[in-house]
Specification:
By secondary structure, this protein is mainly α. Helix content is 74%, strand content 3%. The protein has a single domain, classed as Up-down Bundle (Fumarate Reductase Cytochrome B subunit), CATH 1.20.950.20. The chain is elongated and about 60 Å long. Helix 1 packs antiparallel against helix 2, helix 2 crosses helix 3 and helix 3 packs antiparallel against helix 4. 16% of the residues are buried. The chain has a two-stranded antiparallel ribbon. The structure holds protoporphyrin IX containing FE. The site of protoporphyrin IX containing FE has 20 residues, from helix 1, helix 3, helix 4 and helix 5. Protoporphyrin IX containing FE binds next to helix 1, helix 3, helix 4 and helix 5.
Length: 182
């Protein structure tokens, strides 16, 4: 019988990735609005270093989880829809999912590049690699700006995605069940 839901691993990865993205966006926008010194004034040096380490580490983890999720599609492709989507719904959902994947892959790579080029260390929990020496602060600043704009675009697409999810949940058309954990 054809599957009607994503595999359990795919569903678990969806919600783990969602949790990571919400946390990373919250930290990223805090860094962007306050700046490093502002974060330090608000939270103190120790907590600030932990926040930056966490943002970099969870960003790298996110990258690997998204790659894993994409690789898993080779073994368990997306299930067929129980109720066919309209042409417009199909175009919107395919475009939204494609953009989400592009941003989820591009944002960690962009963050890593911006960090390294600015001369800041790349950190993955206990492991650290020094940034480039000599650093290019100006290029780093531009890359961080693009990283921030990428975060805003990601947030906008996520709001659309979550809105669509809630709409399907209200309609009880089985689409939410495809991805829900239980
Ligand atoms: C940061 C948060 C999230 C990210 C990055 C994300 C990402 C994704 C991606 C990339 C897919 C496509 C899976 C595929 O390729 O087939 C997907 C599917 C789905 N997501 Fe999310 N998602 C997030 C949060 C949510 C939330 C909060 C909801 C519920 C309101 C939700 C509901 C769904 C549903 C129902 C599907 C299945 C759509 C279908 O089968 O056509 N997602 N999500």
């Amino acid at each position: 019988m054809a599957r009607t839901r994503y595999s359990f691993t795919q569903r678990l990865l969806h919600w783990l990735i969602a949790l990571l993205v919400f946390g990373l966006l919250a930290m990223g926008f805090t860094f962007w609005s306050l700046g490093f010194e502002g974060v330090k004034d608000t939270f103190g040096s120790e907590l600030t270093n932990t926040f930056y380490m966490a943002h970099k580490s969870f960003g790298i983890l996110l990258f690997f989880l998204v790659v894993l999720r994409l690789l898993l599609f080779r073994f368990s492709p997306a299930p067929e829809y129980q109720t066919a989507l309209t042409g417009t719904e199909r175009v919107i959902s395919t475009t939204t999912h494609l953009l989400l994947y592009l941003l989820l892959i591009g944002m960690p790579i962009g963050g890593w590049l911006a960090t390294s080029i600015s001369g800041f260390p790349i950190q993955f929990f206990g492991w650290a690699q020094p940034g480039l020496d000599p650093a290019d602060q100006e290029l780093g600043r531009q890359l961080f700006l693009m990283h921030g704009i990428g975060g805003l675009v990601l947030l906008a697409i996520l709001l659309l995605h979550i809105g669509a999810g809630l709409m399907h949940w209200k309609r009880k058309d089985g689409i939410m069940t495809r991805i829900s954990l239980p």
